[in-house]
Amino acid sequence: MLKPSWDKDFKPPSCWEELHFGSSNDVGVLPTANSGFRTLTPEFDVGSCIKCMLCWVYCPEGAIDKTGEVIEVDLDYCKGCGICAHECPKKCIKMVKE
User: Total structural domains in the chain?
Assistant: First the structure.
């Protein structure tokens, strides 16, 4: 997947003079992995999955990818919204608490 890089050396502004106008980060840079607010994580039952890729179509963050025969979730981008689980016709995606 072609995704923005994660800036591990990111430091939040210490005062208002350091705040940027417009976007708070450079293009293609994540300040933290997932921004730390996800509470649920998708788990796939690969035996039940028919690989229809509706989870990929509906994922608003583009966090789902199919590499070969394996469907993967990039947890740096997954927000835990559960749309993938809701749209799965076989219900083989379960949202579990982290």
Answer: 1
Q: What is 42-80 written as a DSSP string?
A: EEE-TTT-----HHHHH-TT--EEEETTEEEE-TTT---
Query: In this structure, are residues 30 and 7 in contact, taking their beta carbons and an 8 Å threshold?
Result: yes
Closest CA to 7 of 74, 76, 61, 62: 76
CATH of residue 25: 3.30.70.20
CA atoms of 23 and 74, how far apart (whole Å): 23
The set of residues, in sequence order, having a beta carbon less than 8 Å from that of 34 and lying 6+ positions away, is: 75, 76, 77, 78, 79
Mean of pLDDT values over 63-72: 85
- pTM of the predicted structure, to 2 decimals: 0.66
Range(s) of the domain holding residue 74: 5-97
